[in-house]
Structure formats: structure tokens, C-alpha cells
Amino acid sequence: METTTTTKIDAKKVEAFLGRVVTDLGAALGITLSYLGDKIGLYKAMAYAGPLSAAELATKTGTNEIYVREWLINQAAGGYVDYDPSTGRYNLPDEHALALTNEKSPFYVAGGFQVVNAVQRAEDRILENFRSGKGMKWGEHHHELFDGTERFFKAAYLGNLIENWLPAVSDIFQRLKDGISVADLGCGHGASTIIMAEHFPKSRFVGFDDHAPSIEAAQHAAASRNLSNLTFAVSGAQDFVGNYDFITFFDCLHDMGDPVGALKNCHDHLNQNGIVMAVEPMAGRKVDENFNPVGRVYSGASVLVCTPNAMATGGYALGTVATDEELNKVATKAGFTRFRRATETPFNRVFEIKV
């Protein structure tokens, strides 16, 4: 096989690549259909219900059988549900149901479908950013990005924050039990702040975010919990006020257009022996260490969400897969002298930053 320029082409390599593209096309369509399955309640209707036909699932959910039939075929092709050809019924395995329907589970992933669906709506803006070098603020995205982000990241916080991340940061766990002041920057809907406030009633927590609708959602979420040690306020990381013993960033430092300024403000508002903890997406220490499924997800999020926000709010774009070295340079410029990766998971790095 030859091209018009007489360059020899390996037909097997072409076929293998086309197979990969078809797989990706199917996955892209599957994300939209999984989003619909979550939104409509198809997964919840199938969870722990045993095998169901398309007609039975449609009846349970008040949906159209024809659409449900095609949706089930797609889900079976993607390995999300099992199919029994002898009965013509589909089953959602319990393990899959845990990940797709239980929002209190550390394995919950359905918020990710919501995130992808939301960011795709900004395609025109992102296309223009490539040409102009401009950005797009977080708050300019479709509102489902904010809901989906909370649902997706909260699972990691439920599974790791109290059991693994905080115990890895010097003596902060005991200090939180004894009672200290904490600022949670870029808190979004307040999932991380609420988890900490509930677990450490003697400590005082303030959640800050510059996106007013997110702070409203955080206040609403906290209201029913009657937490006297928790407040939320609209403020950016560069201009929050108050003095704190512990300051946290959960998956947001890399989104900020002035991360040095944010950390400088932390430096100025830390009490003696204060600590900053920054939870960041997992990334390699070298570029090619990100050439894997996790790196593919995070670098995609970087192009569509994180880097545009950084470009729109200051222009210092770390990117979602910033290396430890790059993050350390930012901390050093802000006046900190001690920086270490305290712990990690397959999806996160947890950094301890001290003066």
C-alpha cells in the first residue's frame, strides 16, 4: 500500500489505528448515553434488581421501550451491563451498580459523565482559545460542570481524605482533632470542607470560592447538617482574609491564573507552624509518564477546563498534569521553603507545603 508521495504504509498499522479510533468513537458516544442513563435513572432502576428486559426497564422508569432497547445494546457492548441471550434480559452487576448509583461510595464515577457532557458544550469557545490564546472562566461553563465536578471528586474525598491524606501531612490530623482554624480554598460546592468539618468538630472551617453560585450551593448543603464550626464565603485564593493554621487546595491550585499569588496570600495568612496541603491530579514527573488512561483524562480536562480558566484569570497556566517540580517552583516563588509529596493514589498527589 502506497500514498501519492510513494511513502510506504504498513497496512496492519493503519488497521490497528482505525480500530483504536472506532473504539474511541464508541466510548465518546457511550459517555453521552451513560450520562443519559444516570440522568434518567436507568442505572438506579437496574441496580440490584436482577435481570430485566427492555420492556421491563422502560416500565420501571416511565421511558420508551424502543430507546431503552437501543441504550441497553450500547451498554452491553461497552461492558457496563451483562446480557443473557437465553432470556433476552440485561443485568447491571452489583459492582457496577456501586460505581454508577451509590453517591456515598468512594468508587462512584457517574459524575464524570456529567462533567464530560458539560464541557463539550463549550467547544466553540475552546476552539477560539486555540486561535486567540484567550481563556474561559470556570463560571462561564454550563452549570452541570459544577454539579458533576462535585459528584465526581467527592468520591475520592470520601475514600481518602480522612483515612489517608490528612494522616500523611505531618501532625495535622492530631491538631485538627484538638482544634485549629482551617481555610479550604477553591472549595466549590463544599464537599471537602463539609467532610472535614463533620469529622473534626473542635476545629473551625471556612470554605472560600470566587464562584458565587458554588458558594450558595455549599451553604445549602451545609445548612441541613447544623455544623456550627463551618462557614462559606465568596473570595478568591489571592484575596481571602483571616489567619489559619491549615490551608487546603483540593484539585484547584493548577486552575488558578496566579498560583504564586494564591500561595503568597496563604504564606501571609498562615499562623506559626501553619501548613498548606494541595491535592492535585496524578501526573508524571516527565511528560511521557502521562501517556496512560489517567493522563489522557487529566490532560483532556486541562485543555477544556483548567487551562482556559487559568488563562482567563491571570495567564500562569500550570496545566492539570503539572509536574512536582513545576508545583515546587510555584511554592518557592511564594516564599515557602519546604515542599514534599506526602502521599498519593492512582488519581491524586497530596503535597505538604511549609514556610
Keywords:
355 residues, alpha/beta, Arc Repressor Mutant, subunit A, Rossmann fold, 2 domains, seven-stranded mixed beta sheet, two-stranded antiparallel sheet, 14 helices, 9 strands
Would you kindly provide a written description of the structure presented here, covering whatever features stand out?
- By secondary structure, the chain is of the alpha/beta class.
- The chain has two domains: 11-101, Arc Repressor Mutant, subunit A (Orthogonal Bundle), CATH 1.10.10; 115-354, 3-Layer(aba) Sandwich (Rossmann fold).
- It is 49% helix and 15% strand.
- It has helices at 11-40, 42-46, 54-61, 65-77, 94-101, 111-119, 123-132, 144-165, 172-178, 191-199, 212-223, 259-268, 293-312, 324-333; strands spanning 82-84, 89-91, 181-185, 204-209, 230-234, 244-250, 270-281, 338-344, 348-354.
- The strands form two sheets. Strands 5-4-3-6-7-9-8 form a seven-stranded mixed sheet, with helices on both faces. A two-stranded antiparallel sheet has the order 1-2.
- β8 (338-344) and β9 form a beta hairpin.
- α1 packs across α6 (111-119), α3 (54-61) crosses α4 and α6 (111-119) crosses α8.
- The radius of gyration is 23 Å and the shape is globular.
- The termini are far apart.
- The mean pLDDT is 96.
